[in-house]
């Protein structure tokens, strides 16, 4: 198979971690007899520097012409970067919202699972009566509607400076992402937890109504509703209870970051943003980490695992995706750690610290 991929290295550590994901993809293609072609494009702060805008039409057109998009990270230090002196619509993160809309990426998948090798890094207390803990959940977040895409303004009203953001959903937007969640649940443990704030918000009451309509087509999948504040609490109390968590845009943004951190390091977790069909954009769950950019110490695993998701979802290459994921697990089992994964206690001597490029090399060796 020929893999035709657009790459958005982005800002901060983005170019470093994307380089390692490419290295791993090249190893996969060599091992399994595929060919691969990359086209690098600009988005985010680097695009502002080059073109004055965070996302150009040329970047959109190139991404649309490819089979999938691999992305690093976008943005910089909000306190010091000149990018954040611009109006919000011209800042780096505006490119993220715009490309999701332009490419029709309505479903964001963010898995959160605890690697056995990193169980000691989990910040959560051990469940009573258990010697180990293990959780494996995936958050399905609606990506192109809700508060982030509603009408917004700031103006003086009756002599008082006032701001308003509009949270809007229609039933079709809810229905299509709900179907995605139920389809994923059928391939996992057949359970969907739908998250809303239906005790307060009309948009959440519509969300709950439509999700239960969709559920009728999936009688083999258990569905239950959970308020977003309770979900946030349950994620730190007992994440093992969750399988597929379905939620709207802003709630999903917050909950997926929380879920990432309970794994021990946000540097471990991939994500996929999908449209109808096989096209998707794949990126790590973490940010651009400008404080460590250029130092060669970034953890590339989240981006490498995002590339594995790309092999699985956009190209249907299950065996190859498994090979990447197993190589990551074997690398960790063999004691190799990026700096963010190194223990802070006396067990540190049991592990070998690796820089960003070395971690990519170790994973490639195990493919």
For this structure, the CATH topology of the largest domain is Isopropylmalate Dehydrogenase
Largest sheet: 10 strands, mixed
* Overall pLDDT metric: 94
Q: What class, by secondary structure content?
A: alpha/beta
CATH architecture of the largest domain: 3-Layer(aba) Sandwich
Unreliable spans are none
Number of helices: 11
Number of DSSP strand runs: 14
Number of domain units: 2
- The fourth-level CATH homologous superfamily of the largest domain is Isopropylmalate Dehydrogenase
Strand content: 15-25%
Helicity range: 25-40%
Compressed to H and E, one letter per element, the order equals EHEHHEHEEEEHEHEHEHEEHHEEH
Strand order of the largest sheet: 2-1-3-12-11-4-5-10-8-9
> How far apart are the first and last residues' alpha carbons, in Å?
18 Å
The CATH class of the largest domain turns out to be: Alpha Beta
Radius of gyration: 21 Å
Bulk shape: globular
Topology readout:
Blueprint: E1 2-10, H1 14-32, E2 35-40, H2 45-51, H3 57-64, E3 68-73, H4 92-103, E4 107-113, E5 136-142, E6 152-157, E7 160-165, H5 171-186, E8 191-196, H6 202-215, E9 222-227, H7 228-237, E10 244-247, H8 249-261, E11 270-274, E12 280-284, H9 301-313, H10 318-333, E13 336-337, E14 352-353, H11 356-366
Parallel strand pairs: 1-2, 1-3, 3-12, 5-10, 8-9, 8-10, 13-14
Antiparallel strand pairs: 4-5, 4-11, 6-7, 11-12
């Amino acid at each position: 198979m020929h893999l035709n991929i657009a790459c958005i290295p982005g800002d901060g550590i983005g170019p470093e971690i994307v380089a390692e994901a490419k290295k791993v993809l090249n190893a996969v293609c060599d091992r399994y007899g595929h060919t691969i072609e990359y086209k690098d494009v600009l988005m985010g702060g680097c695009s502002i520097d080059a073109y004055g805008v965070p996302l150009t039409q040329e970047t959109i057109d190139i991404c649309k012409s490819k089979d999938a998009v691999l992305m690093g990270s976008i943005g910089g230090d909000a306190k010091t970067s000149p990018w954040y002196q611009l109006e919000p619509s011209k800042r780096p993160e505006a490119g993220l919202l715009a490309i999701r809309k332009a490419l029709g990426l309505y479903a964001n998948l963010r898995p959160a699972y605890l690697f056995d090798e990193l169980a000691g890094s989990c910040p959560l207390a051990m469940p009573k009566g258990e010697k180990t803990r293990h959780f494996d959940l995936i958050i399905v977040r609606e990506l192109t509607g809700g508060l982030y895409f509603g009408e917004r303004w700031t103006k003086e009203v009756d002599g008082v400076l006032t701001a308003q953001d509009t949270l809007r959903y229609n039933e079709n937007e809810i229905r299509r992402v709900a179907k995605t969640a139920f389809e994923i649940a059928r391939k996992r443990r057949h359970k969907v937890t739908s998250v809303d704030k239906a005790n307060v918000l009309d948009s959440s009451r519509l969300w709950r109504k439509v999700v239960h309509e969709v559920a009728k087509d999936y009688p083999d999948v258990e569905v239950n509703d959970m308020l977003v504040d309770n979900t946030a609490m349950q994620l730190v109390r007992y994440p093992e209870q969750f399988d597929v968590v379905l939620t709207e845009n802003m709630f999903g943004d917050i909950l997926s970051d929380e879920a990432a951190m309970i794994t021990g390091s946000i540097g471990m977790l991939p994500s996929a943003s999908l449209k109808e069909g096989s096209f998707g954009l794949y990126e790590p769950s973490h940010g651009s980490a400008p404080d460590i950019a250029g130092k060669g110490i970034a953890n590339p695993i989240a981006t490498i695992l995002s590339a594995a998701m790309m092999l699985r979802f956009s190209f249907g290459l299950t065996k190859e995706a498994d090979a990447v994921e197993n190589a990551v697990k074997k690398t960790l089992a063999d004691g190799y750690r990026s700096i963010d994964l190194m223990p802070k206690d006396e067990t540190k001597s049991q592990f070998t610290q690796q820089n960003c490029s070395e971690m990519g090399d170790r994973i490639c060796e195990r493919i």
